[in-house]
Amino acid sequence: MTPGPDDDDTDSPAVDRDDHAADESDGAVAANRPAASDPPAFRAVRDHVREEIVRFARALRREGVGVPANASTTAARAIVVVGFDDEATVRAALRACLVTDAESIPTFDRLFPEFWRRLTAGLDTDGPAPRGDDGPEGALAPLGDAGAGEAGAGAEPESDAGQPGDGDDGDDPDPTSVAKASLGSVIADSGVDVDTERVEGGWYSPTGSPTRMDAIAGVADGGPSIAAAFDDLTDGLATVRGRRWRPGDERADVRRSLRASVATGGTVVSLPRREREPSDVRAVWLVDVSRSVLDTVDRAFLLATLRRARATWRDCRVVFFDETAREVSDAFDEPSAAAAVDALARAETAWGGGTRIGASLSTFLAASPAAFDRRTVAFVVSDGLDRGDVADLERTMARLSRRTAGIVWLNPLASVPGYEPTARGMERALPFVTGLFAFGGPADLAEVGRQIRRHGLGGRIGYEYDPRRGVTDTRSESA
Amino acid sequence: MTERRPTAFADVTDERLRGLFDDQSYVAEDELVTTVLLALRLGKPLLVEGEPGAGKTELAKVLAAGFDTDLVRLQCYEGLTAESALYEWNYTRQLLAVQSGDDDASVFTEEYLLDRPLLRALRHDGDTPPVLLIDEVDRADEEFEALLLEVLSDFQVSVPELGTVRAETPPVVIVTSNRTRALSDALKRRCLYLHVEPPSFEKERSILARKVPELDAAVATELCAMTDRLREEPLRNPPGAAETIDWARAVATLRDDDAGSLSLAEIRETLGCLLKEVEDIERVDESLLEALAEAAAEARAEAAR
Description:
The complex is a heterodimer of chains A (about 475) and B (about 300).
Chain A: H1 17-29, H2 39-62, H3 71-82, H4 87-98, H5 105-122, H6 146-151, H7 175-182, H8 194-201, H9 226-237, E1 240-252, H10 254-261, E2 273-280, E3 282-288, H11 291-296, H12 299-312, E4 315-321, E5 325-327, H13 337-346, H14 357-367, E6 376-381, H15 390-403, E7 406-411, H16 424-429, E8 435-438, H17 442-455, H18 474-478
Parallel strand pairs in A: 3-4, 3-6, 6-7, 7-8
Antiparallel strand pairs in A: 1-2, 4-5
Helix pairs in contact in A: 1-2, 1-3, 2-3, 2-5, 3-4, 9-17, 14-15
Chain B: H1 14-23, H2 30-42, E1 46-50, H3 56-66, E2 71-75, H4 82-85, E3 87-89, H5 91-100, E4 113-115, H6 117-122, E5 131-135, H7 142-154, E6 156-159, E7 163-166, E8 172-177, H8 185-189, E9 192-196, H9 201-211, H10 217-230, H11 241-255, H12 264-270, H13 278-283, H14 286-304
Parallel strand pairs in B: 1-8, 1-9, 2-5, 5-8
Antiparallel strand pairs in B: 3-4, 6-7
């Protein structure tokens, strides 16, 4: 890194530092000319730098980066301090000011080259860069032809009809890449080949023939019971208050206060508090009953799981969805599994068909807003093979994740050892999912329970931590 | 917008900061140097996020040692209260003073005030302001985060009975977080942000060369390659640089100048320095051990070339 131009002007007072640095950078990039003799050009450069910073911050916000309100000011100051001789230095400085979480760093890195090009182009003797018709609200429009490739915007000629609300046409990035970028780096990979995605995305075809796949060894034989798995789950997920007390915030603990006051001569100086210990679970099971799921999942196991959930937890609702969603909680109160199936038949619940996860769940969310609150855990049983609009799915999952304590996704396909969530719907839903697990039999449920009890909903949980999956061979593949 | 106060570090230069990191054997990348320089010169707190063991806490220690000033450390934990972070009244003395009833003087004066880390950092008297390390702020409750806001933006604390305590020159503030929960926007807005990645293979090698000089360079290369390979596994606790240093020290102690390759048995026996979770250790089976040894051999051949 080369030292910034500020290194020899450290004594300049704070008031005119802005001007000073802008002048120097002007000198650094264009011809060396004193500010006083040429005020209009100097002002133009200063205004240009300011405007580009504001534009950059807005472009980041449009891509879903949480840029703080005062960040542009900080960024401007930072540029004054480091100067702009060196791209890497400016990149580091602006990243420190504009980005507030690690997920946003890839988006920042993607947009920065465009900002840098605009910035340096505008510092040229010709004054600010030509700006076309994008106002300050616009995205970072590429400068001429040179920008088109690197910016990743407008590179794909695909038109996006049916994408309402896009203010200015032409210079908007492809909506898919926007959505991906705003999802952060969890799974989004801008380099995904379109063809690969289509193949991996796997539209389920009703006419296709089912293929048997080997599940992880040890699932079928013996294994733990569903009851034990549910005990673990209840411990890990408990959000609803029980009867026992523990130290906390809810109300003053008179007994402990009095006991503590003995040490201070009978004067109560500290007031310990206590709260009810959460011991029960509030959950909603959202079960995909499309044909693709029913072909892969063990139906008896699924029904047993749902009946157990309904019986064990204090507040548990069961919703079936394929192209629409309907609540079937009552059917699982029947005394036996056969009776439950009869009840489902009486309720005219259709089994099999296509899936529109996003649309059907958003209908349910709209119809029963009270089903979810911050203490509810949402379980989704689905293979993530979605025939509907994935943007819809993404919106619904985002809403669901905001309104619940967490989303646990149980995927029957994930029982296969080499499983990766590449299906289109699954990939889009993944950032909002607290944990993605296999759902092939009681052992899988026991694994969910074990991980959640040990690490909680906030911890690192998911199929990838399943000890039964074995060593990943990323290195050996590449070697 | 609050007024900007002069910081004691307005004249710190890039070279000086690099020299300081060098002296303290802290391997710093360009991005880190630039961001720390900005934090010092703008007088803004620096929020450092990253995996455990990436050198977040070390950064504050190195700065304190490098500027030859005090390190005031506040370790956050769930249930951390204002009393243990800011200040507390010495109740026992106050009670005694009231009960003795000698005079009617107030018991809410400096005399009865107990400084806690935040207040201590603000009231520090010395030429160079201290380095205030607020460690693992994500462990503390959200209420505590709100309490930090006044300290971080204005470098002052309001004590109702006394008035406002304000720092003459703001301390250097390093806030670290392990990202176990999202921090509030208000807190982030007041800080510069730095995300430290787990060290790369080359960086880790130069860290070992400085921190564990007694270890043979070829062996150190092997260790770094194996740690690097291990991080590709989905581990609960991926090893950080601190664990690699521990491991290197352990290996250096056990081997006494032996520059030969590590055997599988040696790797397995010392792996406890690197992995701190029983599930992670169970994950290391024969095939993974072989993969590790292979990575080590590759790196050694690469380095010898």
